[in-house]
From TrEMBL:
Gene3D superfamilies: 1.10.8.60, Homeodomain-like (1.10.10.60), P-loop containing nucleotide triphosphate hydrolases (3.40.50.300), PAS domain (3.30.450.20). Keywords: ATP-binding, Nucleotide-binding, Transcription, Transcription regulation. PANTHER family: TRANSCRIPTIONAL REGULATORY PROTEIN. This is Transcriptional regulator with PAS, ATPase and Fis domain. Residues 182-412 form the Sigma-54 factor interaction domain. The keyword Metal-binding does not apply. It comes from the Bacteria. The keyword Cell inner membrane does not apply. Coiled coil: none annotated. PROSITE patterns: SIGMA54_INTERACT_1, SIGMA54_INTERACT_2, SIGMA54_INTERACT_4. It comes from Acidovorax soli. One of its GO terms (biological process) is regulation of DNA-templated transcription. GO terms for molecular function: ATP binding; sequence-specific DNA binding.
Amino acid sequence: MPPLTDDAPALPLDAQGILELAARSMFYLFSSVSQGMFLVDLSGRIVWVNEGYQRFLPDLGFSSLDQFLGRMVEEVIPNTGMRRVLETGNPVLIDLLTNKAGTFVVSRIPLRDDGGSVIGAIGIVLFDHPETTLQPLISKFALLQRDLDDARRELASQRRRSLVAAAAGDGERRSKYTFASFIGSSPAAAEVKRQARRAAQSTSPVLLLGETGTGKELLAHAIHAASSRAGGPFVSVNIAAVPDTLLEAEFFGVAPGAYTGASAKGRDGKFKLADGGTLFLDEIGDMPQSLQAKLLRALQEGEIEPLGSNKLVPFNVRILAATSRDLAAQVREGRFREDLFYRLHVLPVRVPPLRARRSDIPALVESLGDDLALRNGTPPPEVLSDAMALLAGQPWRGNIRELRNVIEQAVMRSEGQSIDAAQLERILREAGVEPAAPVQDTSAVVVAEAEDESRYLRPLAEQVAELERRAIAAAMKAHGGNKLATARQLGISRATLYGRLENPE
Ligand SMILES: Nc1ncnc2c1ncn2[C@@H]1O[C@H](COP(=O)(O)OP(=O)(O)O)[C@@H](O)[C@H]1O
Ligand SMILES: [Mg+2]
């Protein structure tokens, strides 16, 4: 360390002088490293804005500093917490502020006079775009927020259901969706609804396959509601959400006094609770091997064995299952039992990803917006055309669940009724998604959808049958239902045509 010399700049000698110097240094430090600062007086009026802060003004809706200065802070900075700092005199050292200009990490510090009374406050934007600078923290926050939203929604719908059930005078477990709840009229949506409707007429197990958020659970409810078991209970188990060690008891129940700690009365399993109705096994691809064996046995025998009992109990339950995993690949890798796979794969229903039915996006957005409005008691949001085009162009890896989250956030954050593209881009970026190019005309994408090659990645027999059905329907329509002309045009015998019309598969 160099020796201190007489000409080294000296600290002030008195304590007051040191404090003043420190305060000044800190002020300049904050002023230069932060993204922006401003001051309000005791009444909450903006009295000063530094250079850095001025670049937020356009996003806050101001084109000049003059319009901003002298206004009340909450009038010009939506959702700000400055007022509270003025009122309590307590600083907020760190907070996340979200408004139409984005999400910011901010500090709010009261200013006091010599006597210690609050005379104003200083607002500091420590980081803008925390989604990039504080990525891990923010994604954790976004995740928690999403979980919270999901939990709130679930709670609200349970409340609604119990109100409906109470009004109907029964405490039964009912399904909450019907086919009418499945929004979409694109070819892909129409086809999946047709398959699901057909499945509802059957008594065999149904296997719903598709990415997460595509509507598998919704369809399971709808299949139950349209089936002959609609009067019975609809019970679902999310296999991925129950610890492996508890699954067996959850499925098959526990006999009275089966083991130390088990309740003396025993406990009913989901098979028992679903008696006379439908049991929905969600995320079946996550089922541990030991339970796969037991489930297979139960399905083969039509009987279950509650934990700790050695009696077999017959059950009367229709099984629906769903998975977002590639179950066939899991079978090949030896992670899912082949025999169980074939037992469940009787009526597979492939639910298309949202990106394969982009033309449904406007209708979905409208319906999701209406749902939100109903829940919040507000008028439905108006999605401006640039925003709709942006929504139509996204890849939607999380499908309709992701679309709903984005709309929900946009509604929460926008001050007026309308949602524009800039807002949505910010929300997507904050969730770590780089926005894809907008698609102006969703009716044009219907053509592209028809050419989406993933449509062809399923059994050929199914595709041929679908094509035959469409060709017959088109020819019948063109010939006003005249079967002879239809058969002639399609180059098939009348007997073949009759056969197809009676038994379309
Ligand atoms: N076709 C659709 N129309 C309207 N809402 C849908 C549709 N498909 C899915 N949703 C909604 O999207 C969310 C995710 O659907 P869900 O059935 O849970 O998907 P999955 O089980 O495939 O993960 C739910 O809130 C559901 O109501
Ligand atoms: Mg699901």
